[in-house]
Amino acid sequence: MDIKQNNILAFVFHVILVATLINCSTDHERKPYIVYMGALSDGAGISVMEEHQGLLSRAIGDEKIARESRVYSYGKSFNGFVARLLPQEAQRLSEDESVVSVFPNTRRKLHTTRTWDFLGMTKTLKRRQTESNIVVAVLDTGIYIKSPSFNDKGFGPPPAKWKGKCVTGRNFTGCNNKVIGAKYYNLDNAGDPERDDISPADTDGHGTHTSSTAAGVAVRGASLYGLAKGTARGGVPSARIAMYKVCWNGGGCSDMDLLAAFDDAIQDGVDLISVSIGGASRSFLDDPIAIGSFHAMKKGILTSCSAGNDGPYAGTVENVAPWIFTVAATGVDRKFETAVKLGNGAAVSGISVNTFTPRKKMYPLTNGVHAANATGYNYGNVSACDYGTLSEDKVKGKIVYCLGSATQDYTIKFLGGAGTIMALDAPSDIAFTTFLPATSVVAKDGISIDRYINSTKNPQAVIYKTRTANTTAPFVASFSSRGPQSINLNILKPDIAAPGLDILAAYSQLVSITGDITDKRIAPFNIISGTSMACPHVAAAAAYVKSFHPDWSPAAIKSALMTTAIPMKIKPEDAELGSGSGQINPRKAIHPGLVYDISLSSYLSFLCKEGYNGTDIGRLIGGKNKHDCSSFSPARGTDGLNYPSMHMQLNETASRISAVFYRTVTNVGYGDSVYKATVASPKGLSVQVVPSTLKFDRLHKKQSFKVVVKGRPMKKGTSILSALLEWSDSKHSVKSPILVYKLLPLSG
Ligand SMILES: *[C@@H]1O[C@H](CO)[C@@H](O)[C@H](O)[C@H]1NC(C)=O
Ligand SMILES: *[C@@H]1O[C@H](CO)[C@@H](O)[C@H](O)[C@H]1NC(C)=O
Ligand SMILES: *[C@@H]1O[C@H](CO)[C@@H](O)[C@H](O)[C@H]1NC(C)=O
Ligand SMILES: *[C@@H]1O[C@H](CO)[C@@H](O)[C@H](O)[C@H]1NC(C)=O
Ligand SMILES: *[C@@H]1O[C@H](CO)[C@@H](O)[C@H](O)[C@H]1NC(C)=O
Ligand SMILES: *[C@@H]1O[C@H](CO)[C@@H](O)[C@H](O)[C@H]1NC(C)=O
Ligand SMILES: CC(=O)N[C@H]1CO[C@H](CO)[C@@H](O)[C@@H]1O
Question: Where is the signal peptide (predicted)?
Answer without folding.
Answer: 1-24
